[in-house]
Design a protein that fits this description.
33% helix; eight-stranded mixed β-sheet; alpha/beta; Rossmann fold; single chain; 21 strands; 407 residues
Length: 407
C-alpha cells in the first residue's frame, strides 16, 4: 500500500527553527492572503506555528485556510484558559496594518490578538511586518508609533518594500531568514562576526578585457546564508557573479585580488571572528595592463605572474580561518593527503578539499578536515558543506559560553 501523506505537511528545508513555537498574528489587510505561504515557510525550517486572527482579517481570508497552513487550530477569541499568556519563542505580526500598529504602541488590548501582543512585548521577540498604502505610511501617526515600538527591547521590524504606491510586506523568504537569524543569535555566546569571500576575481588585460577563474559563487553564497540563518553577523565579500544576493545579507562587491584582500582585511580589523575563504581567487596577475582597447587585428602576448595567496595575508590573533583546496586528476586518497599538508601549512581551523571532477551545477562533493583532528568528514552537497562549517562554529561559540558559565 502506498504511504499516505497529510496534505498539510511541508518539505523540510532546514532545522533552524526546530523546537521553536511561534505565535503568528494576522491583521486585516489584503496582504493577509500572503500569510498562509509565510506560515508554511516557517514550518519548512522546523517551527510550530500557532495562528491568531483579528476580526477584520477574517474578512480577507477564512480561518480554515490558516488551520490548513499551520496544521493547528486558529485563535480568534480568548477563552477561560487565557491563551494570551503565551510561552512561545516569538510573535510575528504579518501583515501589520496601521490600525494594529497603533494599538500595539498605545497598549490597546481589545481583541484576542491585540491582548496576546501586549502580553508578549518585553517578554519575547516580536517581529512586525508592516503593510499598507503609502499614504498611511507617510502619516505622523505611523512614524510616531513605529518609533515608539522600535525603542522597545526585542521588537524587530521586517522592513517593507515600496511598490505600486504601497508598502508591501518583505518577501517571505527574506522574512523567514531574518527570523531564523535573530532567534538563533540568542544561543551564541556573543554577536559573532563572520566574513565569507565568494565568486571569482579578475586581472585586467586592457580596459575592456580580463582574465578570471570560473566560479558561480554558489557555494560561498550557500555558506554565507547558512551562517546568517544560524545567528552570525555575516558580511559577504563578493567577486563578479550572476547570482542575485538576498537583501538580508550585507555584502561588499569587489573585482580584483587586491580589492578582495582590502575588503576582507577591513572586516577583520572591525572584529571579525571567522573568515571563510570560499572565493575562487585568481592565481595569476597580468604583469602589464594596456590602456584603452587592444586591437583585435594584432597578436597579443600576455605575461602573467603568480599572485600572492590571499589567505596567507589575512591573519589576526583570534581570527579563525577556513581554507579551501581544489585539485584535479588525483585520487581521493591523494586529495586527502594534500589537504592534510595544506591544513598544517595554512594554519587554518577547517579546510574543505575537493576535486574538480566532483563539482558541477548539481553536485559538490568534498572532504572536511579540522585542526587537531585526524578525522575526515565526507560531504555530498553545497548544503552539507555550508551546514558542517556553520555547525562547527556554532557549537564552538556555544561551548565558550558554557565554559564561562561553569566558572
Amino acid at each position: 500500500m502506498a504511504q499516505m501523506f497529510d496534505d498539510r505537511d511541508v518539505e523540510i528545508k532546514g532545522q533552524h527553527l526546530s523546537g521553536k513555537t511561534l505565535d503568528f498574528v494576522i491583521t486585516g489587510g489584503v496582504a493577509a492572503m500572503e500569510s498562509p505561504r509565510f506560515i508554511r515557510e516557517l514550518r519548512r525550517f522546523g517551527a510550530e506555528v500557532r495562528v491568531w486572527m483579528t476580526p477584520s482579517s477574517e474578512k480577507f481570508v477564512s480561518p480554515l485556510v490558516f488551520e490548513w497552513a499551520s496544521k493547528c487550530s486558529v485563535t480568534t477569541e480568548l477563552s477561560g484558559i487565557a491563551e494570551h499568556i503565551s510561552h512561545s519563542d516569538a510573535v510575528i505580526v504579518a501583515p501589520c496594518t496601521l490600525n494594529f500598529l497603533s494599538k500595539m504602541s498605545l497598549g490597546i488590548a481589545d481583541t484576542a490578538a491585540a491582548t496576546l501582543i501586549q502580553s508578549a512585548m518585553g517578554r519575547m521577540p516580536v517581529f512586525i511586518a508592516p503593510s499598507m498604502h503609502v499614504s498611511l505610511a507617510e502619516t505622523a501617526s505611523y512614524e510616531r508609533h513605529r518609533k515608539n515600538l522600535a525603542q522597545l527591547k526585542n521588537v524587530f521590524f521586517l522592513e517593507p518594500q515600496a511598490n505600486e504606491s504601497k508598502l508591501k510586506m518583505i518577501s517571505i523568504e527574506s522574512a523567514v531568514a531574518v527570523i531564523c537569524h535573530e532567534l538563533s543569535a540568542r544561543h551564541l555566546s556573543k554577536k559573532t562576526k563572520a566574513v565569507v569571500s565568494l565568486g571569482p576575481t579578475r586581472s585586467a588585460i586592457d580596459d575592456v578585457r580580463y582574465i578570471s577563474n570560473h566560479s558561480t559563487g554558489a557555494l560561498g553564497l550557500q555558506i554565507a546564508d547558512e551562517f546568517f540563518r544560524r545567528g552570525f553577523d555575516v558580511t559577504a565579500v563578493v567577486g563578479p557573479i550572476q547570482l542575485a544576493l538576498p537583501s538580508y545579507l550585507r555584502s561588499v562587491s569587489v573585482r580584483t585580488n587586491q580589492e578582495m584582500k582590502k575588503a576582507i582585511k577591513a572586516e577583520v580589523d572591525r572584529g571579525a571572528d571567522i573568515a571563510v575563504f570560499a572565493a575562487a581567487v585568481l592565481d595569476f596577475d597580468v604583469i602589464k595592463t594596456s590602456v584603452g582597447k587592444l586591437s583585435s587585428k594584432d597578436s597579443v602576448e600576455l605575461k602573467l605572474r603568480p599572485s600572492a595567496k590571499l589567505i596567507d595575508s589575512i591573519r589576526s590573533k583570534n581570527l579563525k580561518r577556513v581554507g579551501f583546496k581544489l585539485e584535479s586528476g588525483v585520487s581521493e586518497k591523494e586529495l586527502i593527503r594534500r589537504a592534510q599538508d595544506a591544513l598544517k601549512s595554512q594554519d587554518v581551523e577547517l579546510l574543505v578539499a575537493n576535486r574538480l571532477e566532483d563539482v558541477s551545477p548539481e553536485t559538490h562533493r568534498a572532504y572536511l578536515l579540522s585542526k587537531g583532528s585526524a578525522g575526515v568528514v565526507k560531504l555530498n552537497s553545497r548544503e552539507e558543506i555550508a551546514q558542517a562549517l556553520a555547525v562547527f562554529f556554532e557549537s564552538k561559540f556555544k561551548s565558550d559560553l558554557g565554559r564561562k558559565s561553569a566558572r
